[in-house]
Amino acid sequence: MFLYINKIFLVFSALFSFLISCNSQSEVIIEDSVLKSEIVEIYLLDALNDSRKYCLDIIGYKTNADINKGLQVHSCYSYQGKISVDQGFDKSRIDDNEFYIPLFKVCMEAVKIEKSSRLELKNCDKNQKQEFIFQNDGKIQPLSNLNLCLTASENFREGGGGNPVHLIRDLSLQICDDTFSSRQKWSFRKIN
Fold first, then answer.
1. Three-state secondary structure along 96-115?
2. Are 84 and 168 in a shared domain?
3. What is the domain count for the chain?
């Protein structure tokens, strides 16, 4: 009887060790995929009134940005030599029509798919309000309404820092219109 119990214990020990090693390997794979993701900033093609250009940005400051306040357009931080965590998007997810900010684990989402809707940040769940296509002509549009474009506001205000002072513009969905192309055409870049 003792020998039988001992064999069962050894089988369970081996099974437990196997499960632990599988779990450790999957964690390594997950970590590697995050490390290998290409982080890019999304910026307006037209510099407007800021030579640093304007980037999609979480309201707040870098790691202290507040995802509950949504997105804005802000002077790009890449002039400092790297992409800021509150302006960094996962390129592979953009290719899948999802604008994901890895450090904060959130996706861009329209409050509504209609004109003048603002953009907020929510847990990624692939709902219709999170599906955006980055068109070859630079437009970023909700897949469910290609008449709308991600648009930086005409007005700007000064931010709380930078030299020269950072500039901020509101961000919303507006009707796509060539007369507004300076505020509706975007690109992305990575910093080496």
1. CCCCEECCCCEEEEECCCCC
2. yes
3. 2
Gap between the Cα atoms of 172 and 57, Å rounded:
13
CATH number at residue 56: 2.80.10.50
| Geometric angle at alpha carbon 35, from 31 and 37, rounded to 5° | 120
Specify the pTM. Answer: 0.80
Q: Give how far the C-alpha of residue 8 lies from the chain's centroid of Cα atoms, to the nearest Å.
A: 50
Amino acid at 50: D
Domain that holds residue 140: 38-189
pLDDT above 70 as % of the chain: 81
Of 160, 142, 56, residue with least CA distance to 97: 142
The values of phi and psi at residue 91, to 5°, are: -60, -40
Regarding whether 9 and 98 lie in a shared domain, the answer is: no
Burial of 94 (0-12, 13-18, 19+ CB in 10 A): buried
Euclidean distance between the first and the last CA atom of the chain, given in angstroms as a whole number: 65
User: Encoding tokens for residue 47?
Assistant: 């510099």
pLDDT in tens, 21-57: 333 332 222 233 345 579 999 999 999 999 999 999 9
